[in-house]
Write a structure and sequence with these properties.
Largest sheet: none
Helix content: 55-70%
Radius of gyration: 24 Å
Distance between the termini: 63 Å
Number of helices: 14
Shape: elongated
Order of helices and strands: HHHHHHHHHHHHHH
Length: 292
Amino acid sequence: MTAEPPDLPVTPVTLPVTVIEARRGWAAMRLDELWAYRELLFFFVWRDVKVRYKQTLLGASWAVLQPLLTMMVFTLFFGQMAGIGSEGAPYPIFSFAGLLPWTFFAAGLGGSSNSLVGAASLLKKVYFPRLIVPVSAVLGGIVDFAVAFLVLIGMMVWYGVGPRWEMLLLPVFLALAFGAALGAGLWLSAINVEFRDVRYVMPFFVQLLLFVTPVIYPASRVTDKLEAMGLPGWIYGLNPMAGVLQGFRWALLGSAMNPWPLVAMGSGMTVFLLIGGLAYFRRMERTFADVV
């Protein structure tokens, strides 16, 4: 017979427990975590770009076709038939120079507002800085912007518009567009978690915002009207994209209108949107996993 092994003493093993607690105040945002999780941020951006053109026939060509076809429609109906001015520049390049930052802003705003709902499964299972989700949704539009910008360079060569030193300031205006899209997107993404009406309001809101932003017409048309009414023209900068678009055209085409009053007012509005959006996002963040 085989002897049975003696009973050995069982030593209990204590596993480490990690407790994640909600923080109070601005410390809850942990903006430094964005850098610590930068690889995850890059993955989210790359995933959004791949999913956007997955199983599409034309792929990334849509990044060019969308503003290009819109420019053709605007040129036909507003540039030729309606005779809307373009500050001395050819209307096709005038409208395309405005459509590039506008398309980036509109895509970032729409993507970030629905980003938390789209990442519901991850929010419920894994911890990571929730701020990464709307940030990656806006950053993904930079790829489309860069592709379409090459077409704008080709149009400038075609129309004989030479390079200007002011073009070095284009990243500043792009950063303002990014901040405006992210600031508004933080508000809308947090609201969308609790009230799904945002997904139905967004298309109408973006369409309405298109007509109150100087995409089709020069910003001087609005500022001149405001000044004729006895109001300062820089009030138009309450729409932060007004300064961005005017700044783009000034840097690219040498617009006669001074863009800096609109840019200054728009920058203030962008900072307000970002600070307010971060505060509201922080306040609602602890409920995302439960409600989404």
